[in-house]
Amino acid sequence: MAKQNRRVGYGLPVVLAIAVHVVALLLTMLRLPDSEPTPSSSSVVQATLVSDVTATDQAQYAQEARARAAQRQAEEAAQQAAEQQAQEAAQQAAEQQAQEEAQQQAAQRQAAAEQAQAESERRQQAAQQAAAERAEAEEQQKAAEAARQAEREKQQAEAEAEKQRQVEQAKKQAEAEAEKKRQAEEAKKKAEAEAEKKRQAEEAKKQAEAEAEKKRQAEEAKKKAEAEAEKKRQAAEAKKKAAAEAAAKEAAAKALSDSIANEQERIANAEQSNQASNSFINLVKRAVEDRWHLPANVDNGLVAQVRVRLGPSGELLAASITRSSGNPSFDRSATQAVEAAAPFRELQQLDAGLQRRFRDFNLKFTPGDIQ
What's the pTM value of the predicted model, to 2 decimals? Predict the structure, then answer.
């Protein structure tokens, strides 16, 4: 009875062990495929993390996958062996093996779950780190792009400002050139106006000089005409005077000749040479007195002596002052009277002795008489 109860006691555990083993096997078969694609929600992250996983990580992942595959194969083999052993061992080791297998499978499942969870956490951390790094890189890239854009905008603004400054400078330079050109034009016009004014002044000056020259020439022509007229008048007067003097001289000479003839006749009749000489001197004195023009307002006490030298035929050789009166006009009138009365042709009618005597003699002039 006791033995029968122990059989009954072994049969139930065996059945339970087999049932548990089958359940565990089914659970393992159902859970293990799910262990690999557990992080289904992070498939996008995994896809984006492909570029972030290094070759070492890929090798480690492959090794882990091979280990898991080998583990699954081992588990499957162990399960098959366990099933076979459970079938063969039947009542003896079913309970113990089922327990061990259950414990082993639970430990394996727990280890696989922990490994899968650790892997998922590591991948999630890697994905988060990669996302953070990408975000940081994107932020840095955006910041760098923003900085570059700001720099480009700054450079563009500076270029625009420089361009505007150059335009303003060119405009100012153009305005300065225009102002300079305008000032040059004004200076040129002013210089031309000054030159024109100067030219007009020069022309006016030349015209005034020409008018003055014309006037001066007219004055000179007038003076010249007047001088010519005066010269002609003086020539006519001189001619008239010369004619009158010639006529008077001729008359005086004729009178002197007649007087000398009469004197000579008288001298010849009287045979007195002194009377003849006195007659010649008297004739000379009368001829000189007729030609003497006494200056006005002369002192009656003036006395001038003139030396008279004659040639053989009675021509005047010289008439010089031997004693001055102190009045140049009076002295000049005395010499001019002797010069006007010459020649004294009557000298030829005297004999040779008297001619030598009367070729050099003195005449004394006083305002009232000639001696």
Answer: 0.30
Question: In 3-state terms, what secondary structure has residue 47?
Answer: helix
pLDDT of 135 over the 70 cut: yes
Q: Residue 187: is it exposed, middle or buried by C-beta count within 10 angstroms (0-12/13-18/19+)? A: exposed
Q: Are 281 and 256 in contact (CB under 8 A)?
A: no
CA dist 329 and 298 (Å) reads 9
What does the pLDDT look like over 321-362, one tens digit per residue? 999 999 999 999 999 999 999 898 888 888 887 888 888 989
Q: What is the dihedral of CA 13, 15, 18, 23, to 10 degrees?
A: -100
pLDDT surpassing 50 at residue 44: no
d(CA 262, CA 266): 6
Give the mean pLDDT of 147-165. Answer: 84
The token pair at 226 is 């007047």
| 320/130 Cα distance (integer angstroms) | 156
Query: Helix H segments across the chain?
Result: 2-35, 43-49, 55-89, 94-270, 273-291, 328-341, 352-357
Which pair of structure tokens corresponds to residue 57? Answer: 């990580």
| Cα–Cα nearest to 130, from 49, 62, 198 | 49
Reference 358, options 370, 349, 367, 368; nearest CA is 349
